Each structure stands twice: as structure tokens, then as C-alpha cells.
User: Fold this.
Amino acid sequence: MITKVLMPKLSEAMETGKVIKWLKKEGDAIKGGDVIAEIETDKANVEIEAFGSGVLRKIVVGEGAQVPVGEMIGVIADPADDLGAVAAGAPAKRPAAAPAPVPAPASPASAVPAMESYRSTPETTKVVPMAPVASAAPAAGGGRIKASPLARKVAAQSGVDLRLLQGTGPGGRIVRRDVESAAASPGAAAAGPAAAAPAPAATRQQFVIPQRTGAEFEDKPLSSMRAIIAKRMPLSKGPVPHFYVTSEVSMDRAWALRAELNALEGQPKISVNDMIVKACALALLKNPGVNAQLQGQSIRVFHRAHIGLAIALDEGLITAVVRDCDAKPLAQIAVEARDVAERARGGKLRAQELSGATFSISNLGMYDVEEFSAIINPPEGAILAVGSVLEKPVVDGGQLRVGRRMKMTISCDHRVMDGAMGARFLQDVKRLLEEPLRLLV
Assistant:
């Protein structure tokens, strides 16, 4: 039996995929469910499994090549099967991607100075003397300059060198009109020692300019993840009418409960974000209008809470999905959330963990961010932005004390829900975090 290995569609936005690595080679025996290749999607690297048994007869797409979703990348068949018909319908074999050529270094005449550093060293600096000021012919008859007191005052104010002027007053005396005329002319001489006879080179004013080499900037091609982010975000922020609701939560009791849970031996460590995930999941069941998406002329309301966790990677942002958070205990959510985060950073997420979220959470608290707003990840109807848990002065029962506070901002699709609906959802999340024993029930 002949089985075509096709480039799978592993997310709603995926249009192309890249073959990162073949884990089997031509001629290897294959069983259904064997991992045969590693594919780079718009979100992560994913291992794909074989759907048929036999022998990997042909690798159509080499490592490093990128092909559209649905295109054949390999063939699994029995050794006796004729692949003629399959080969005739297959695209031309795509070889492994060749490494990008290294650009030749620019010649000194055409190189653009880099903007990387302004630090000067004896080997990388160039001394450029200031050009001397062009001077006019000196006034006749050296010695003391004949000038009226008023002319001297005007010359000092306008920066005109009296030694370079020819007076028109009695006996060649420089008068006010001579100074004003020189100051108004384009070739007026500057005052001061620099206007005199050229000074020795060692005494001239100098500029020290770094001798910089290399390109001034670099254009880096978009990674697959960054390219899909660049494509999808305008589709969210532009067409989706966002509105935002912010609330501040008292985290004193949640903080204390977390410390007690983490002190138990043999139990998984609980993070603040794990508690927020559980609180959101429970609040979504109570506020199903927030757990919803616009689908053409209808609104799809979900009865399960599949939470997408925004995870920052070096090349971009990925959302990993933890399913059925409303039905899972807090400890299990903690284990699964930590697992998907680690595998996301290692590029090892499974296909079902890349899509299907009904609501997402973006937490920047670890970066000392007090408050921010997140962009909705379509087709979801809302996303929660979470800031840091901060110690602040608070008034409690008329007394001033130090308390722990955290700000949350929900971004909502106004086509799906209104402000009151988003506010009620935040109220329920806040109540669950301020009465955290409810998260354990």
C-alpha cells in the first residue's frame, strides 16, 4: 500500500512548512505512528508521525526546503509497489536549502561607516584639523590698530577682527561703519587668534573622529514565526474593535496560599500564573460570553476552557494551549503549563498544543511590568494581560499597611461582547484570586 507523506496543516494560519530534519532515511522500515520527520511551522518545530506502514521509499523534499501545506514530501510503500504513478504526480524534488552566500566585504571607498561604537582608540581614530579661516589682507601700517572706541565695541560684539580691516576714518582710522560693513559681508573675518597668520599645525583646533568600518545596518530575513506574526497582527488590531477593562487585585491571600502549597513535599510547585489560569477557567464557565468567538454571522460560545499561554521565544511569541483547565486541579495545571512552556522553548510542541485556545493569557509580571494591554489572538474573543505582583501602601479598615497588588487588563472583541460583560468576568477572576481556596475546590 502506498502512503503519501504530506506537509501537514498544524495551525489555522499555517500556509507553508519547512522540513527541518528527516529522522528516517530512504529504505528504512516504517510503522504507523513512527516519528519520521521534524517540521518547522509558523509557530514551532513539530515532529510528524507516519500514517502508514512499509518502507520510506522516497524523500521528495530535502531538509531545509519550504513547501506549501498539502504538498507531498515523501512516500511510504511496500518494497514491491510501483511508484511510477505517484512519482508522475509529485512535484520536482526539492533539494536541501543551500546556505545563504556570504556577501563580499565592501571596498574602503564604498563602505558605509557603522553606527556601532563611538569609542576611539589610537588605531581607529583619524585626526582632521579644522580648516583655517580665510583671511583678508591686513590693514596697512602695522603696529597699534587705529580704531574708535565705538568701533572696538561693535567689533567685539560682532566677532570682527579689527586687524583685517582698512579704516575709512581720518588718517585711516577704523570707525563704526567699517566694522558694521565687514560684519554684514559674507567674507567677514572672525575675531581671535585663529584669524591671524596660520598657526602651527600642533596648535590648531582638532576634531577626533572614529574611523568606523563595516555596514551601517543589516537587513535580517523574517523567521517563519515573525513572518506570521507580522501577517496576523494587523488582521487583529485593525479589523477587530478592541476595548479594554482594567482591575487591581489584592494578592495577599493568594500569595500566602501559594507559599503554603509550595512548602508541601512531593507536590508540584505552583506559580502565580497557574492560579490565574485556574481562576480564568472557572470565570469563563460563569461568563460564557467571554469564552466566545465571532464566526461569520454567529457567535460560537464554548463550554470548555482551553487556555492559551503566551510564551516569549527569541524569535517571537508563541501561544501554547492547555486544555480543559476548568476541569483540572490546580496542581495538574501547574505541571502541564510548565511542560508546554519548556517544550515550546525547545521547539517540541505537539500539533494539538498549537491551536484551539478559547481564551488566552499574556503575563509580563516577571519583567517588572505593572500594567499593559495585549492584542487579541484571532479568532479568540478576548485576552487577559497580567502585570507584576507589587508591594504597595494600601488602606485596610482605615489603617495604612503594605499589601500585594496586581493589575489585570482584559482586551475584548467588541463584536462579541460589551464592556459590562468584560467587567463582570474580571470581577469573578478577582474574587477567585482574593478568595483563593475556591481554586482548590
User: Anything to note?
Assistant: The CA atoms of residues 60 and 374 lie 41 Å apart. The chain has three domains: 3-89, 159-183, 230-440. The helical segments are 84-89, 149-158, 176-184, 224-237, 252-262, 272-286, 330-345, 419-434.
